[in-house]
Write a structure and sequence with these properties.
Elements: H1 2-18, H2 27-34, H3 50-57, H4 68-72, H5 82-92, E1 116-118, H6 121-128, E2 143-149, H7 154-169, E3 174-179, H8 184-190, E4 197-202, E5 205-209, H9 217-228, H10 265-283, H11 286-307
C-alpha cells in the first residue's frame, strides 16, 4: 500500500513538472515555494488586475525594474524583456561560427549595375587598386566582390543567374568575375581551392569568402550587406530593395548559365606522363623480373613439348 502511494505521488509530481500549460517548473516556482509565497504565485499566468500589473512594472526609488529572480529565471519567462531583445541583437550580429562578422566601410562606386568579366591581369590590378594608402578595415576604401569560376564547371553555370542578379542589385559596388582556369597565379595567391568561389576584397586585400551551402540571390545579398553595410538597390533608384528579384536578363548574361565543353589537352599530357613513369618504375621492380622469367619458362616448356 505504501509503495502504491509513493508511485502515485511521484507520478503527480512528474506530471506537474513536465506540464507546459502551467508554470510549476523552474527556479521561480521553487523560490516561491521555499519563501512561503506559494499562495501568491500564479502558475496559470492570470488572476492579476491591471492596477497590479502597473504597480509591478513601476520600480520604487533605488530599485531596478528587474529583480535577481528575473535574472535567474530568464529562460522560464513567458514574456519578451529588454534583455532578450539585446541578446537577440547580439546573436544576429554574429556569424555562423560564433564570431562577429568582418565589416568594412566602402566608398560608393558609380557603376551601372552590370557584372564585369575580367579577362587580363591588367584589369585585375585596375579593379583591386586601393583608394589611398590605408589598408585598415575601419577606413573607407575600395570594395570589390569577385567570383572565381570556370566555363566548364557545372556549379559555376548554376550560380550564374544569381550572380548576375547580385551585380544588378549593387550598383554602388564593383561586382566582378574571373575565369580561374586562365589565371593560375591568382588561384595560388588568394587560396582558391574549389570553384565557384566568391571573395570580398577591401583595399585590394581579401577580406572574407562566401561559405554558405546554398547559393541564391538572397544569401548573396545578405553576404554583401553583412560585410559592407551596403543595402541592395537598383540603378537610378535611391530606395533600397527589401525583396531581391530576378529578371529574364539575369539568365542570359553577362555570366553564362551554360556549361562549355572544352578539350583539356594538358590533361591528356598529364595522364601520358603518369603512365610512362608507372611503366618505367614497374620495369625496375622484382615483379617485372618474375613475370619475364615466368613467360620465358613457359615458352621453353611449350617448345620442348612440340619437339617431342
Amino acid at each position: 500500500m505504501n509503495m502504491r502511494i509513493k508511485h502515485i505521488f511521484t507520478s503527480i509530481i512528474v506530471a506537474i513538472h513536465c506540464c507546459s500549460a502551467f508554470r510549476f517548473s523552474g527556479l521561480e516556482f521553487y523560490s516561491h515555494f521555499i519563501n512561503g509565497d506559494f499562495l501568491d504565485y500564479r502558475p496559470f499566468g492570470g488572476g492579476s488586475s491591471k492596477s497590479d500589473d502597473v504597480q509591478q512594472s513601476m520600480p520604487s526609488i533605488g530599485q531596478s525594474p528587474n529583480s535577481f529572480l528575473d535574472f535567474i529565471t530568464f529562460k522560464d519567462k513567458q514574456y519578451c524583456s529588454i534583455y532578450e531583445e539585446q541578446a537577440q541583437e547580439a546573436e544576429d550580429s554574429k556569424s555562423a561560427d560564433g564570431k562577429r562578422p568582418l565589416k568594412v566601410k566602402c566608398i560608393p562606386a558609380k557603376g551601372n549595375g552590370t557584372l564585369q568579366i575580367i579577362t587580363s591581369l591588367k584589369e585585375v590590378i585596375s579593379v583591386l587598386a586601393p583608394h589611398g594608402n590605408s589598408t585598415k578595415r575601419t577606413t573607407a576604401g575600395n570594395c570589390v566582390i569577385m567570383l572565381f569560376y570556370t566555363k566548364t564547371c557545372i556549379h559555376s553555370a548554376f550560380m550564374a543567374p544569381h550572380y548576375n542578379a547580385l551585380a544588378r542589385h549593387f550598383p554602388d559596388l564593383k561586382v566582378t568575375a574571373i575565369d580561374a582556369f586562365n589565371f593560375h597565379s591568382l588561384n595560388t595567391e588568394f587560396g582558391i581551392v574549389g570553384l565557384p568561389t566568391i571573395m570580398f576584397f577591401h583595399q585590394g586585400r581579401p577580406l572574407v569568402k562566401f561559405n554558405e551551402t546554398e547559393i541564391t540571390l538572397e544569401t548573396l545579398v545578405k553576404f554583401v550587406t553583412k560585410h559592407s553595410g551596403v543595402e541592395p538597390r537598383l540603378v537610378n533608384h535611391k530606395m533600397t530593395i527589401n525583396v531581391p528579384h530576378y529578371i529574364s536578363e539575369d539568365f542570359k548574361g553577362p555570366l553564362s548559365n551554360k556549361v562549355e565543353k572544352k578539350t583539356d589537352y594538358w590533361l591528356y599530357v598529364a595522364w601520358s606522363f603518369i603512365i610512362v613513369c608507372s611503366c618505367y618504375y614497374f620495369s625496375k621492380s622484382v615483379y617485372y623480373v618474375q613475370m619475364i622469367e615466368t613467360i620465358k619458362r613457359n615458352w621453353r616448356e611449350s617448345g620442348a613439348h612440340h619437339r617431342s
